[in-house]
Amino acid sequence: MASVAGLLLGASSARAEAPAASATAIVEGPGVKIGEGTVLHPIVGAETGVISNVFREDGGGATSGILRLIGELGIGSLSPQRLELAQGPLAARTGNEEEPPPAPANKGDLEFRADLSLTYDEYLTTNRNVRTQRDLSIAAGLRALVFPMGTWAFAFDDQFTRETRPTNFESRSGTDRDINQLRLQLLFQPRQRTLSASLRFENRLDLFEADDHDFANRLQNTFGLRVNWQFLPVTRFFADASLGLFSGLGSDSQKVSSMPLRLLMGAQSAITVRTTVNARLGFGKGFYASGPDFTNVLFGADIGYRYSPVGRITFLYDFDFGDSINANFYRDHTFKTSIEQQLAPFVVHGSAELRFRGYRGVLTNLTGPADRDDLIFALGLGGHYNFRDWFAATLSYNLLTDQTDFIYMTADGYTDDPSYTRQELLVGVRAAL
Questions:
Q1: Cα–Cα distance, 425 to 39 (Å, whole number)
Q2: Is residue 262 within 8 Å of residue 233, measured between CB atoms?
Q3: Does 18 have pLDDT greater than 70?
Q4: Residue 279 pLDDT > 70, yes or no?
């Protein structure tokens, strides 16, 4: 049990690692029309490069070349973003600041989007343990909004992901897991009113594919209510309350049940034409059935500054907690800076993130639940060059380091430090129909 828990410790400690950008964020062609108002969007891509420390080992680990094949397929009605792109920003359509903008386009009674993304990784190396890590990750989602222009609306969002990654030591097994997240919302959005609200239900099913990892399987249900008050045209206040019912899943589960409570208040506003700010303050408690519990204030803020019409930088700080697969919970102090700049036809972006993470109630069979403190730093740089709207070249670099004070014992009696540093450099292409 200790070695398997340690395996997941390495697997879950690096949640700060940013996922690869969706192909639809880079290219999306006109698509293939398959019905009135319904368009099919196929996208293909390929990347190659090098990854250091494939197994996320302390002090190094295997380095390998990689070939990544990407296929995405989307189908849906015209999104609000594309409606605006087709008609121009509302504020700019009249050409006169004193004239009121026209009403938003009628979206009909149903707005939806379904997406499927497949990513296959082939490791280019002579190391057999690395080559056996070849795998297929999956992301699929369905989003729908019923009566989007009505006073009452219903939102449906279901997202499925198959996460694949090697273990944090050299092995031919992995820590593949299937995660399904469902979100249902009842929206109250009266036109020309300052108050709006939403009632939501969220369900998360988190399952590991390997039988010897099923002690970490989880089922999470959350109920929430949010009320918004539009105080000024660019200022909104909100209050949000949620209560969760979290538990392990299956007879082998080692997960402690909990009822996480969050009570939050916040504001979203624009200080100037170029500067925006979002802030929140509240209270959180885990209500864990046994072991350590979280009870503390929650707070965070992010500031965005548009230094040019095509450039924006943001700064974020956040203090929050979350349920953990290998502990009762973790709490994070998060600092993040991100920047995006368009230099047509180039788009470049970067981010730097620092997390001070503490796990409490870590699963172990040594001396009972333990504590673990990590310092996680992630750096991401990238960009793409659009030869056409439907064809682009991409370049990305990612650095992730996780340094921890926690040591665990493997099944063969050796101790292992799950700290690691990992780098990834990739170049590729994307094409859309």
A1: 34
A2: no
A3: no
A4: yes
Q: What is the pLDDT of residues 160-218, one digit of tens each?
A: 999 887 765 444 456 789 999 999 999 999 988 999 999 999 999 999 888 878 888 99
Q: What are the DSSP calls for 305-339, one per residue?
A: EEEETTEEEEEEEEEEEEE-SSSSEEEEEEEEEEE
Instruction: Judge whether 103 lies within some domain.
Output: no
Task: Please check whether residue 100 lies inside any domain of the structure.
Answer: no
- Percent of the chain scored above 70 by pLDDT? 83
Average pLDDT score over residue span 12-17? 42
What per-residue confidence (pLDDT) applies to 88? 47
At 78 the pLDDT is 57
**Distance between CA atoms of residues 276 and 269, nearest Å:** 6
Q: Which residues make Cβ contacts (< 8 Å) with residue 350, sequence separation at least 6?
A: 338, 339, 379, 380, 381, 382
Handedness of CA 8, 14, 18, 20 (dihedral sign): negative
Residue 221's CATH number: 2.40.160
Q: How far apart are CA 420 and CA 428, in angstroms?
A: 26
Domains of the chain: total: 1
Lowest mean pLDDT segment, chosen from 52-61, 78-87, 222-231, 348-357: 78-87
Q: Determine contact, residues 298/281, Cβ cutoff 8 Å.
A: yes
Q: Is 43 exposed, middle or buried (0-12, 13-18, 19+ CB in 10 A)?
A: buried
What residues does 364 pair with on adjacent strands?
none
Length of the chain, please? 433
pLDDT at 411: 64
Instruction: Write out the residue range of the structural domain in which residue 172 sits.
Output: 2-93+108-432
| CA 318-324-330 angle, 5° bins | 40
What backbone phi and psi angles, to 5 degrees, belong to 70?
-125, 135
Cβ partners under 8 Å of residue 250, min gap 6: 214, 217
Amino acid (one-letter) located at 71: G
The residues, ordered by sequence, that sit 6+ positions from 284 with a Cβ below 8 Å of its Cβ are 260, 261, 262, 263, 294, 295, 296, 297, 298, 320, 321
